[in-house]
């Protein structure tokens, strides 16, 4: 809300819609709901609220953690969805997915943008997202072993499909791709981590949707305000 010309009531309504809308809400939808005069105003409102979806003091994932990478097709100006496949990043954006498993059910989630599927890209994400001593359940990809402080439980994907070896990670991946296409009609490279943070927030609040609005406001009060120029700066776009 820092430096905003929008009324406080608009901010509260926007936060409520962002936190409680079942699948999320695009900037164009937000603008129509709130009667905003420009797409830029609606986009900035949504972008600032996404910034309040990450609690910097949140606990790391622990125990058994399924982890894998995926690629999300990105939108271009002339082509709604680009191609690509396998572990090659060509035509797609690389994302690493980690799901905490508690009593054979999914717990909390973390998502991160990575340059590639190398240990140099994966190990920093693991360190920032998973508590030391946790067990990493993977598909046996060679980049995972060697992450210091973790147990490694490889399940090489061969006769069994990846969604059987790592069921919760691949359910998240499927839901993430459906969400990205359904709500935003595909994502662009810019601000990808911000949209991933929104998906994580929704996933982690799925059991307490009534508290999501309060959580969003609480984090928003605790973080530093950002401006439009800060949001569109290259370092903010990933």
Q: Notable features of this structure?
A:
Tnp_ISXO2-like; Nucleotidyltransferase, domain 5; 10 helices; 238 residues; 2 domains; alpha/beta; Transposase
Spell out the blueprint of helices and strands:
Elements: H1 8-20, H2 27-34, H3 39-51, E1 64-73, E2 92-102, E3 105-113, H4 119-129, E4 135-138, E5 151-154, H5 162-165, H6 167-184, H7 192-204, H8 209-222, H9 228-232, H10 234-237
Parallel strand pairs: 1-4, 4-5
Antiparallel strand pairs: 1-2, 2-3
Helix pairs in contact: 1-3, 1-8, 2-3
Domain ISXO2-like transposase: 60-204
Protein name: Transposase
What class do helices, strands and sheet pairing give? alpha/beta
Task: Point out poorly predicted stretches.
Answer: none
Distance between the termini: 24 Å
Tally of discrete structural domains: 2
Strand segment tally: 5
**Cα Rg:** 18 Å
- Named CATH topology of the largest domain: Nucleotidyltransferase, domain 5
> β content, as a range?
15-25%
Quick one: CATH superfamily of the largest domain? Ribonuclease H-like superfamily/Ribonuclease H
What is the average per-residue confidence, as pLDDT, rounded to a whole number? Answer: 86
Q: Count of helices?
A: 10
Portion of residues within helices: 40-55%
What strand line-up does the widest sheet have? 3-2-1-4-5
CATH architectural name of the largest domain = 2-Layer Sandwich
Shape: globular
Main beta sheet strand tally, sense and closure: 5 strands, mixed
CATH level-1 class of the largest domain: Alpha Beta
In N-to-C order, the SSE pattern is HHHEEEHEEHHHHHH
């Amino acid at each position: 809300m820092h430096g905003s010309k929008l009324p406080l009531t608009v901010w509260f309504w926007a936060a409520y819609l962002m936190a409680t809308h079942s699948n999320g809400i695009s900037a164009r939808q937000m603008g129509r709901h709130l009667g905003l005069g420009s797409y830029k105003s609606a986009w900035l409102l949504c972008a600032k609220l996404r910034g309040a979806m990450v609690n910097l003091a949140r606990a790391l994932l622990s125990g058994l953690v399924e982890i894998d990478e995926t690629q999300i097709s990105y939108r271009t100006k002339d082509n709604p969805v680009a191609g690509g496949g396998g572990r090659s990043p060509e035509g797609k954006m690389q994302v690493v997915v980690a799901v905490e498993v508690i009593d054979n059910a999914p717990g909390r989630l973390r998502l991160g943008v990575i340059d590639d599927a190398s240990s140099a890209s994966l190990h920093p994400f693991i360190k920032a997202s998973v508590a030391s001593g946790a067990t990493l359940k993977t598909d046996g990809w060679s980049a995972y072993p060697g992450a210091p402080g973790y147990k490694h439980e490889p399940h090489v994907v061969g006769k069994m499909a990846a969604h059987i070896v790592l069921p919760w990670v691949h359910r998240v991946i499927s839901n993430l791709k459906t969400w990205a296409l359904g709500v935003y009609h595909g994502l662009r490279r810019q601000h990808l981590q911000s949209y991933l943070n929104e998906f994580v927030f929704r996933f982690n609040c799925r059991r307490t949707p009534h508290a999501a609005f309060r959580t969003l406001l609480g984090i928003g009060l605790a973080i530093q305000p950002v401006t439009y120029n800060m949001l569109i700066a290259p370092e903010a776009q990933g």
